[in-house]
Write a structure and sequence with these properties.
70% helix; SecYEG/CpoB_TPR; 9 helices; transmembrane; mainly alpha; chaperone
Length: 243
């Protein structure tokens, strides 16, 4: 027992010791009543934490395996490996998250390469209508479908499909905007096409090749902003008419 400071009344010491003993008895009673359940709860929490950590590691491992398998399948397609095509089919028809969507896009693209536009369009339209996919992927499917059948569509149909997606700041503004502007030109509306080309040419998030092409078209339509001469540029000398 700790030594009490001098001047402490004997009755204070007695009551303090009694209070300590009461607290010890209460703690012992609490532990005897609830200690087993506390141990069980802590154990269950540790098991749950371990399970979560295992699940997370397993998901990471599976993603890594899927990534390797999908990359191998794509490389096989490039060299005409028939088994690789079967692997892409497996991804496209399975439930592999983002890899399933990528495989479906790959299948549609290969159909275009093989001249089977009907199959490609059917796949792109299904992708565009798939509400489980992120909206940017659905928009990409819509844009790609328009590109596949661009030559057979009326300009008005192109405008109807692409105008909502050809807005500055939209994910696919460059690609959709270029096709929309060309459709406006086909309709005889260069005043609508020019500003779109100008907006594409000034958007630094768009690929340089597309921006350069848009700049040339905007310039040909007179839609680029006028460039003011530099303040320190020498003034042109007046023409006197003398040789």
């Amino acid at each position: 027992m700790a030594r009490e400071p001098s001047g402490t009344a004997p009755e204070d010491v007695f009551f303090r010791e009694v209070d300590e003993e009461v607290r010890k008895d209460q703690l012992a009673g609490f532990w005897s009543r609830y200690g087993r359940w506390i141990v069980i709860a802590v154990g269950a929490g540790l098991v749950a934490l371990a399970g979560f950590l295992w699940w997370r590691e397993e998901q990471i491992r599976k993603v890594g395996v899927l990534s390797e398998e999908y990359s191998a399948a794509l490389q096989g397609l490039e060299i005409g490996n028939a088994k690789a095509a079967q692997e892409i089919d497996r991804f496209a028809s399975g439930d592999y998250g983002g890899y399933t969507a990528l495989a479906r896009f790959t299948k549609a693209s290969r159909a275009v390469e093989n001249g089977d536009n009907a199959t490609a369009l059917a796949e792109y339209k299904m992708l565009a209508a798939d509400t489980k996919l992120p909206q940017p992927l659905r928009d990409l499917a819509t844009i790609t479908a328009v590109r596949v059948e661009y030559d057979t569509l009326a300009p008005a149909d192109v405008v109807t499909r692409l105008k909502p997606l050809a807005q500055p700041g939209a994910p696919w503004f460059g690609v959709a905007g270029e096709m929309l502007a060309v459709a406006y030109m086909a309709e005889g509306k260069p005043e609508l096409a020019g500003p779109i080309f100008a907006a594409i040419s000034s958007d630094e998030t768009i690929a340089p090749s597309l921006r350069q092409r848009a700049q040339q078209l905007a310039a040909s339509l007179g839609s680029l902003p006028d460039v003011a001469p530099a303040a320190d540029a020498p003034a042109a000398e007046p023409t006197t008419g003398k040789n």
